[in-house]
Amino acid sequence: MAWNVLNGCSQGLLGPLHVLEEKVEIIRPDGQATAACTEPEVVKMRAGDRMFGMMPLSFATYPAIALRYSSVDVAQLKTSLEKALKAVPLMAGRLRSTQDGFEAVLTGEGVPFSIVRCSEKTAPEFVEESKLPDFGNYCRPPAVRAGREPLMTVKLTMFQDGSSILAFCRSHMLFDGTSAWTFLSFWASLARGEATSAPCSNRDKISQLVPDEETVQALAQKEIGKTLSASWLKAMVGQVLVPALAPIADTLFLHARLGLNRHRVYFSDDELAAIKEEATPTEVKPGQDKWVTTQEAFCAYLLMTLGKHILPPDAKGKVQMMFLLDARKALGLPSNQLMGGGLTFTSVMVEDLKLLTLPEIASRLHEGLAKKEGSLESQKARWQLLNGACEKKLEHSLMQEFHYKRDVDMKLAVNNSSKRPLLDFGTGPAESVVSDAGPSLLLPAKEGGLYLYLDPQVFSSAKCSSKEKRSQALEALRTDLPKKGTKRKVDS
């Protein structure tokens, strides 16, 4: 029996959709009937944005966000998208390669808006992650970079009872996760007829934040303990091997659904509150806080519960907890700044996991995020280091240092999107949402709480190949939940 069935989650549709009709309309910025005839405006892409568009689809290079609705107003979706594109014309353009990178050309060629009508009675309660290619129009990254495919697509799949799945895909070179949700929220507000200010699409300040090579090397020495140097092997992997294998990987993603296999687990608001209550420390060292955030408590619970079941008996329990943090505040940028790479990869190391209580793990994550690795100062330094390294084509060496810590017994990476809105395009909020953004992803639930999409890489990082142990660990995420108001000592 599948894990999703055990937790009462919809399995979605089985097999391909029976399509009755499909139409594609090109949506252009409001007032623009055709693509630009005169010389269009050009926006030069930073090397730091380029990095997010060079990998295969399974690395969220052209990710999807799919939302379920009981009903939609198709005409309003289209007209409001025209208005949104007028305010953000970048997404209606195309990419073009240059001698030293890429640039976005504001051609106004538009966004393909597909409307599919199928014979199935009702939309699935949840779109299973493996079904995303059925509902979203993914474009292969090499074709996007060459300007042959659009920077963004929209697909509306409509069912017999009027319910639908609205799927939005976009190039990560233009929009990171925050940008995607910002744009969607702006589009939704226009669909509701609300007056709202457009997101910030000017990128001048972002470019000014990218440091020179001397500063990059100084930051590298501080952040990773050594300067960066070019490696012919890593360069060959990034510039030759990955592009050569990408078409195969993309085909496997689209047709065999390779990489779309995360485990979905639901946690209610009450369960999250109980986890936070139990994870809040009562005794701390001088200078430490006696509080933790819900995110820190939840991630501590994941580490403790998974570690108990999948770490080898002889493992010391050294684990790497990685967070994807939005660096806009640290960089002094507006919260609605549109950009391709506004995130930082922040790792907090936890030693001797097996010997720690839940409050001790949560406290270590909190101190690291609040005052050390995740502080605003550190976020800015890491963003500048990564983006400066990209300018010198040293990002492959740097990413190895960020992601692959030596002698780690388990690694868990989390992208927390649980506070994103269930968007309302004028006919009511979405009833569910799924995305292939990663690695492990937290998404909001209509009934409150969140859904965890757990990346199987956490098991392979712990060298856990046993299906039985993996299943036990997943079950334990539900069975080991604490009860609110009954704070207990966690067994080590």
TrEMBL record:
Gene Ontology MF annotations: acyltransferase activity, transferring groups other than amino-acyl groups
InterPro entries assigned to the protein according to its UniProt record, in alphabetical order: CAT-like_dom_sf (IPR023213), Plant_Fungal_Acyltransferase (IPR050317)
A Pfam family per the record: Transferase
Record key words, sorted: Transferase
Region (Disordered): 471-492
Name listed for the protein in its UniProt record: RAS protein
